[in-house]
């Protein structure tokens, strides 16, 4: 049986996390620079939208995710980052649906 699209996506997220975590220092955690690279390389359209390419955005996201304040993001803390990304993508999805609906019904 082949993986479902969601299962494949989950595997890719885990793989990407470990690929970037292994770049420097502790191979089980992401530094700020590793997180920046992971986001820049893997979600470039998201990072370009709504000013997320600004240096402070990832720094603030990193600080919020780093619950134990050790300047590293473990996988459990990375789940917070993913939650923020998913929430923002979900909001963008709804904005697109609303814009499409409004355009179809001449609500602009």
UniProtKB/TrEMBL annotation:
Q: Name one Pfam family in it.
A: S_100
**GO molecular function annotation:** calcium ion binding; calcium-dependent protein binding; chemoattractant activity; transition metal ion binding
| Organism (species) | Myotis lucifugus (Little brown bat)
Does the record's keyword annotation contain Metal-binding?
yes
Q: What are the GO cellular component annotations?
A: cytoplasm; extracellular exosome
- Provide the transmembrane region boundaries: none
Q: Does the keyword Membrane apply?
A: no
Q: Which GO terms describe its biological process?
A: endothelial cell migration
Gene3D superfamilies, sorted: EF-hand
Q: What is this protein called?
A: EF-hand domain-containing protein
Q: Which CDD domains match?
A: S-100
What are the record keywords, sorted? Calcium, Metal-binding
Which residue ranges does the record assign to the EF-hand domain?
60-88
